[in-house]
Write a structure and sequence with these properties.
This is Carbohydrate ABC transporter ATP-binding protein (CUT1 family). GO terms for molecular function: ABC-type ferric iron transporter activity; ATP binding; ATP hydrolysis activity. Keywords: ATP-binding, Cell membrane, Membrane, Nucleotide-binding, Transport. The protein is built from eight helices and 23 strands. By secondary structure, it is an alpha+beta fold. The chain folds into two domains: 237 residues, Rossmann fold (3-Layer(aba) Sandwich), CATH 3.40.50; 111 residues, Beta Barrel (OB fold (Dihydrolipoamide Acetyltransferase, E2P)). The strands form six sheets. The protein has a six-stranded mixed beta sheet with strand order 6-7-8-3-9-10, sandwiched between helices. β7, α5 and β8 form a beta-alpha-beta unit. α2 crosses α3, α2 packs parallel to α4 and α3 packs across α4. The radius of gyration is 24 Å and the shape is globular.
Length: 358
């Protein structure tokens, strides 16, 4: 297990990058704790896999260092880093049986036969492949092969870190949930440092202790699922986390009031003078429709998704979403909306501003 330190780390795929825009991975300075489970979350092309490949040693960064337990491994080959990595698409030995595939990393390191047998049996039980342990991998479905890849990545107990690069892409939805649960159980049992790359917020939020949200080559926030939901550090986090995402509305902020087209929205915190692009962010869960209280809103449509209703509305010319309870009646007189003052976030040039209690 390892503490992983990213020290002034940055990477460009160009031989002579001229500026920040030429970097796929912009400067990072972070310490990831030994034994925690992290998810790298972001849209395609944001730098997640680049960062994972630098951690694993498949890619050497353009500048900066990476340390495992304070030892510089920036130039160390993958084999010397003592990690296990599972890729997006299955990598298995077709001529071997499932049992032989799972045992391969342990046999390579000279583990005792009794230990190998016990460990392989336990991992096979975890991934639901006990009944086909002696079947050759050739001819198995893509999701079965990926389960073998997952199992082979998890079979070693002595690794510094387990790295997963969108490993459940080819797995059917029901099995995805089951395997995520098993990965969390494995983490609780052995305390490996785990890093899990995904573009799926559900996978990230249900797997990780801490979610590392990436956008345009940057880490914009590291936090628990609750922190990402309640206090997004960047407007991208607000958009990306939640379904639907946070409402972000241009506003003028003075003290504990936000003004949109001259209409006032109360806030629980007060702010000084703000420069640049100023916006407020409010989760749809913290907006409420009313016939009498709040500011005018025009409902465009209502979508019933079973657990609740999503109200799509026009608010002073801006599209906003409002979450209504499943049993809540939404009549034609519901023409006003109010926001929970304690849940209104303020952003300047996309970054959250910390106010003072009003």
């Amino acid at each position: 297990m390892a503490k992983i330190t990213l020290d002034n780390l940055a990477h460009s795929y160009l031989s002579d990058p001229a500026g920040e825009d030429d970097y796929a991975l912009k400067e990072l300075n972070h310490v990831w704790a030994d034994g925690e489970a992290y998810a790298l979350l972001g849209a395609s092309g944001c730098g997640k896999t680049t960062l994972l490949n630098i951690i694993s040693g498949l890619l050497r960064p353009s500048r900066g260092r990476i340390l495992f337990n304070d030892a510089d491994v920036t130039h160390a080959p993958t084999a010397a880093r003592n990690i296990a990595q599972v890729f997006q698409f299955p990598v298995v030995y077709d001529t071997m049986t499932v049992r032989e595939n799972l045992a391969f990393p342990l046999k390579n390191r000279g583990a005792a036969p009794d230990y190998i047998a016990r460990r392989v049996q336990g991992i096979a039980r975890m991934i639901g492949m006990e009944e086909i342990l002696d079947k050759r991998a050739r001819g198995l479905t893509a999701d079965a092969k990926q389960k073998i890849s997952l199992g082979r990545g998890m079979v070693r107990e002595d690794v510094n870190a387990l790295l997963f690069d969108e490993p459940l892409t080819v797995i059917d939805p029901h099995m995805k949930w089951e395997l995520r649960t098993q990965l969390k159980a494995l983490h609780r049992q052995f305390g490996h440092t785990m890093i899990y790359v995904t573009h799926d917020q559900t996978e990230a939020l249900t797997f990780a202790d801490k979610v590392v949200v990436m956008h345009d080559g940057r880490v914009v926030q590291i936090g628990t699922p609750e922190e990402l939901f309640e206090a997004p550090a960047h407007t991208f986090v607000g958009y990306f986390i939640g379904s639907p995402g946070m409402n972000v509305i241009p506003a003028r902020v003075e003290g504990a009031q936000a003004y949109i087209n001259g209409a006032s929205i109360p806030m629980a915190r007060a702010y000084g003078a703000l420069d640049g692009k100023v916006e407020i962010g409010v989760r749809p869960e913290y907006a409420r429709l009313s016939a009498t209280e709040g500011l005018p809103v025009r409902i465009r449509r209502v979508e019933d998704v079973g657990r609740h209703k999503i109200v799509r509305a026009d608010f002073f010319g801006y599209d906003i979403n409002i979450i209504a309870e499943e049993g809540e009646e939404i009549g034609p007189d519901m023409t006003r909306v109010s926001f929970d003052p304690a849940r209104v976030n303020v952003y300047a040039d996309d970054w959250r501003v910390e106010g003072e209690a009003a």
